[in-house]
Structures are given as structure tokens and as C-alpha cells.
User: What shape does this take?
Amino acid sequence: MMIAVFLLIALTAAAPSIFTEGRREKEKELIFRGEQYAHAIYLFDLQFHRYPTSVKELLHTNDMSFLRQRFRDPMAANGKWRFIHATANGVVTDSETLQQPGQQQGENGSTRGSPGGPGSSSFGNGMGASSGTSAFGNVEGAFIVGVASTSKQMSIMTFNNHDHYNHWEFIGIPGLPGSVIQTVNPAGFAAPGQPSGSPIGSKPTGGFGSF
Assistant: This one.
């Protein structure tokens, strides 16, 4: 009887540690899957000089695949992501972490006070054209530039100084604040610590591949 009591006490003490470790593994998986999307978006732009309008385009466009599979959000019960979009003028419209100069950070991480709207941030270097089109195409706000979790739960780890999963944003624009692709190497892949071969918003040269 005493042995059973001791075993029960030991299991009760170990349960929080097991739960925490499980959460950490899911957080690592969230980072892995989010970065897969960001790299796929980046490589798609390298190849076609525009950003994708759907996950389907990342999976298969012109006999090319930039994403291995339609990864699910590991933190959301329904597995659905929150997609981050940009307009044809190069404005990220629905990020919850990016802010332009003059914006104020709200208590819940939202932004306000910018002419671009909540969570907006501009990038690019004169991509607009007289016809009203740009390197993105001619559909306002239809271009996917990143993903984020839909879970608003507080995280154990921090990612880019954020501690809520819905603020863990994985953006495929090189050099943009918060982007997981900060620099570009000659092969066209993100390379921590290597100098960038092009300014923010320009089209870096190099190869492409699939993940």
C-alpha cells in the first residue's frame, strides 16, 4: 500500500515537468513549420518575382514545389494558421507585431496611429508602376507574405521577444523586422551572420529550391 502511495506522489510531482516538456516540443514544431512557410514564400518570390496568393501555389506552381506539405498549426485545435498579407504597394496589412514609425504599441500587442492601418509596415523600393501594377501583381492585399499561429495562449519560450503564439510571426521577406529571413547568401537561402546581397524589398539573385 505504501509503495502505491509513493508511486502516486512521484507521478503527481512529475506531471508538470512532463506537460512543460511536451509544450516545449510543440513550440519547437511551431517554429519549424512556420519557418518552412516563410522559406517557401521567400523562394516563391525569388522564382516568380511576386508573392503567392494561396498555399496551393506554394505546393505546386509550374511543376515546382516550394513547400513539402500543407503543415498544420500545432498550437491550434483546428490546425489553421493566420496568414499575413501585403498589398501591391508593398504594405504588410495584418501583422500583429510590425509597426511603422509613429505607431504606438497597445497593451495586447496591437498597433495604432499609422496611416497604413493596424499592424501595417511598408517595404520595397519603388515597385509601383504607372499602370497601377507592381512586382506583386495587381491585386490589392491578396499576397501571402507570412504565417502566424491562431492560438493566443502564452508561450513558455519567447520568439523574437514575443511570448504569445499569435505574435510568433514567420515572414518570408528578407530584412523586414521580425522576418525569419534576415540575410541572403549567394544560393538564395537565409544564412545567419552573412551579409545581405540586396536591400529590403529588392529581388535578390540566386537559386531556388523546395523544402
Confidence is low (pLDDT under 50) at residues 100-120, 125-140, 184-211. The chain has one domain: 24-171. The beta strands are 81-86, 91-92, 104-105, 111-112, 121-122, 143-149, 154-159, 162-164, 169-171.
